[in-house]
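User: Can you write out an input/output pair for a complex, sequences first and structure second?

Assistant: Here is one pair. Inputs:
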Amino acid sequence: NAGVMQNPRHLVRRRGQEARLRCSPMKGHSHVYWYRQLPEEGLKFMVYLQKENIIDESGMPKERFSAEFPKEGPSILRIQQVVRGDSAAYFCASSKKDRGNQPQHFGDGTRLSIL
Amino acid sequence: AQSVSQHNHHVILSEAASLELGCNYSYGGTVNLFWYVQYPGQHLQLLLKYFSGDPLVKGIKGFEAEFIKSKFSFNLRKPSVQWSDTAEYFCALAGGNTGKLIFGQGTTLQVKP
């Protein structure tokens, strides 16, 4: 049990469709981070959110990608009009605080495949 | 600019061999360093972390890492690897106030029984 719950584990979409990836942080954690792992590459930071706030989205592509972390419910990473290059593993992590000395706990990831 | 570099992309060892995985970073301020492990098909798990204090950090499963500030390095070591250590290993740093992690490219470790 990873603690951080991501769903779905695997998602297949056709080009042009929308992909929605969900992340429920560990109990007691109010900080959520999204990372993307492209084939043969390390994890790249995408966005950092707290409840109802985007704190840092410096790693998000400028178009088609958005993220939210509503007051109630999971954090959502949304990719509109998906393209082949969006195929990757998307990992969510959560922590208690936003300082760098708080370890992040990762979910199992969502593996997105674009046909 | 913040960056993390792992020099070994793929390492193959026999059981009982000693392991050292290199990690160098670039960051101008106070840095927090981590090693994560990803077993096949699983999520990333924290092996160990360095925030301050003793530069020799001990983690889970017999792993340790040494922070050498003058060399901007945080190498991971294990005296004797096991087949179950086969996994991908990521070095990461967190700097600044947001805590976002900057990862290295990862090192795939294959341990032969």
